[in-house]
Amino acid sequence: MRRTFLKTAFAAVVATAACALAGNAAQAADLTVGANIGNVPWEFQDATGKNVGFEMDLVEEIGKRLGKSVEIVNIPFNGLFSAVQSNRIDMAVSSITITEKRLASVSFAQPYYDSDQSLTVLAKSGLSKVEDLKGKAIGVDTGSTGDMWATQNQAKYGFGDIRRFEGLQPAMLDLAAGRLDGYVSDIPALLYYSKDKPQYKVAQRIPSGERYSIMFAKNSPLASQVNEQITALKKDGTIATLHEKWFGTKPEAGTSTADVLDMPKPKS
Question: Which domains are present in the chain?
């Protein structure tokens, strides 16, 4: 009986180990996607706690077409860069702008959205442009292009203080409470967020010529695979449908949402 018990126990251990290995193999086949959840309308949680948004729909569709499941990992925006560089995640989304500086250390698929920065204020504040914020406190998302713009222009416009936040929601709460005078961030997110909140006003578009895409580790082979899927999604109208779902209109001709483009490469 003791031998039988030992054999049974050994078989159970082997079976458990095999299951664990199989589980690890299955997990390795999945796409792990980092995202700063709370970044409307790109990635945020609905009333049920489900992750939703334009980029959530996009990466789920890309995963499906690649035959891989998708796992979303909530990471603050500034942490997404080190997460892809260290291969902790396979790719990252969060309305990430392609910049020449970023292309030196990471790779991007072709862009799928054209954007600008914006200034959002309380409607009752009487503020209407960045020139009105001399000596005042403004909020930005840590490490974002809004952060870069505000830092570069602080002396020009005389901003009194630049306060950094991990996402839109805490910044807007501070704006509502009077702890901020203005918030500089990507215009599509603010237009979406404030459309049913009359206490806020997107007071000014700040031209920046930004384009969003999915970010990968430098020279990751996954980047070209995803790029091919984005091309297909543009050609068959899927991305146009997502744009209409989340922004209420079809994408304009000539934008990166509508046109198939090359993968961005560093100039030097």
Answer: 12-114+212-247 (3.40.190.10), 116-209 (3.40.190.10)
